[in-house]
Amino acid sequence: MPAETRAMLPLDQHLALTQQLYFEARLLDEERFADWLDLLAGDVHYQLPLTSRRFRADRSAALAEGPAYVFDDDKARLGLRVQRLQSGLVWAEDPRNRVRRIVSNVEIYRAETDGEARVHSVVEIHRSRMDAQQRRLTAGRTDVWRHQDGAWRLTRRLIAFDHPVVIDSNLNVFF
User: Fold this and answer.
1) Under a CB-based contact definition with an 8 Å cutoff, are residues 90 and 121 in contact?
2) 87 with 93: CB under 8 angstroms?
3) How far apart are CA 34 and CA 71, in angstroms?
4) Residue 71: other Cβ atoms inside 10 A
5) DSSP single-letter state for residue 51
6) By three-state DSSP, how is residue 12 classified?
7) Would you place residue 61 in the very low, low, confident or very high pLDDT band (cuts 50, 70, 90)?
8) Are strands 69-73 and 98-110 parallel, antiparallel or unpaired?
9) What secondary structure does DSSP assign to 66-100, as a single string?
């Protein structure tokens, strides 16, 4: 992404977009996946790259292949993931895990393209499984939301995991 600008949105748009983030989290917590997919732009790009943990003094060149991804999805792929979760065949989700998303540290700025906003946020996901195990995942997100047809639509999400490795036995959640 280009160098960051901190131009603010008008207050009404800022509040509407903040509410959209909270609404998105509730839709996912309630497993209303079809409604969540409706919040996504047709050209959405949803990514979770693997993080590289290196010592600060390590000046060696990074791998030339580029980043590897846990998720690198478009809307069609996200739809397939939703179908899989709703199929009843995902044993790790039967019985249903209880999931809560906490969205915080929300910053919203005008994007470089008219009608779009750049949103930085932190998400904390709490999962409670049948075996009483509780998992907590945290990540930072950099989004681009586009105002189209009278609503805000997610067009890009880049997720930055706080964990150096995936610490859960399965990752059947959306960030």
Assistant:
1) no
2) no
3) 19
4) 16
5) P
6) helix
7) low
8) unpaired
9) ---EEEEE-HHHHHHHHHHHHTT--GGGSSPPEEE
The answer to whether residue 91 sits within a structural domain is: yes
pLDDT at 1: 45
pLDDT of residue 65: 59
Question: Which one-letter amino acid corresponds to residue 16?
Answer: A
**19 within some domain:** yes
Q: What is the pLDDT of residues 24-34, one digit of tens each?
A: 999 999 999 99
Q: What's the domain count of the chain? A: 1
Q: Tokens 């994007």: give the residue.
A: 111
* Chain position carrying tokens 């977009």: 17
**Within a domain: residue 3?**
no
Q: Between the CA atoms of 10, 15, 16 and 17, what dihedral angle is there, to the nearest 10 degrees?
A: 90
> pLDDT band at residue 89, thresholds of 50, 70 and 90?
confident
Which single residue is written with the structure tokens 């997100």? 141
Range of the domain at 147: 11-51+72-161
Q: Is 52 helix (H, G, I), strand (E, B) or coil?
A: coil
Which pTM value belongs to this model?
0.88
| Sheet order of strands, 40-49 included | 69-73, 40-49, 151-161, 134-148, 116-128, 98-110
Report the C-alpha gap between 83 and 37 in whole angstroms: 11
Within a domain: 31: yes
